[in-house]
Amino acid sequence: MSCAAAMASRSLWRLRPGPPRPLSAYGRRVSVRFCSSGMLSGNINRAAVHRILRVDHAGEYGANRIYAGQMAVLGRSSVGPVIQKMWDQEKDHLKKFNELMVTFRVRPTVLMPFWNVVGFALGAGTALLGKEGAMACTVAVEESIAHHYNNQIRTLMEEDPEKYEELLQVIKKFRDEELEHHDIGLEHDAELAPAYAVLKRVIQAGCSAAIYLSERF
């Protein structure tokens, strides 16, 4: 879930004919143009895009570290394959945001080393409570990320849905997969975790703080 995307002109986010170009995470060929100055072409909110990509990259990095921690504890248990499947999707999310960070020349948050340690500790710590604890963590984190993605979708839709079409598709797809993980957590007894309501509130408070800090630093 290691939670910066609001800028791309139509020429930036639309598919264009031409010689073979790298495939996106979804198998479509995407091309991005830059001005001679190195700035993104078109009338876009470049600062907002950087902020969105930075925080989303950090969030997906954190999510990966959480699942890594859970697998370290529960990888050989009956719930291990379930966690692994969700982790594999998070790896795809992170890979896509890694690509976008390079494309848009975005600086990662300076807090990456911190999220590396905290994410793994959160995953492993909740997994030590049993599969219910791990799934409670999944529900809390994925619900927070989905809410965060919904806020970004609203922002981009209000500004110009055509201008940010490709980015919106990425965020919407990942939002839907985070909600799937949320539901999987509930199906695997997340609510039976010790002090579930308290645990969920504490984890989500941490997620809100992580989002706030990663957007700004």
State the main characteristics:
7 helices, mainly alpha, disordered N terminus, 217 residues
What does this structure look like?
The chain is 67% helix and 0% strand. It has 217 residues and is an all-alpha fold.
Mean pLDDT: 83
Number of strands: 0
| Net shape | globular
> What is the CA-atom radius of gyration, in angstroms?
18 Å
DSSP strand content: under 5%
Major sheet characteristics: none
Give me the secondary-structure category.
mainly alpha
Distance between the terminal alpha carbons, to the nearest Å? 18 Å
Helix proportion: 55-70%
Q: H/E element string? A: HHHHHHH
Low-confidence stretches: 1-41
Our count of helices gives 7
In short:
67% of the residues lie in helices and 0% in strands. It is mostly helical and 217 residues long. Helix 2 (46-74) runs parallel beside helix 4 (112-127), helix 2 packs antiparallel against helix 5 and helix 5 (131-159) runs antiparallel to helix 6.
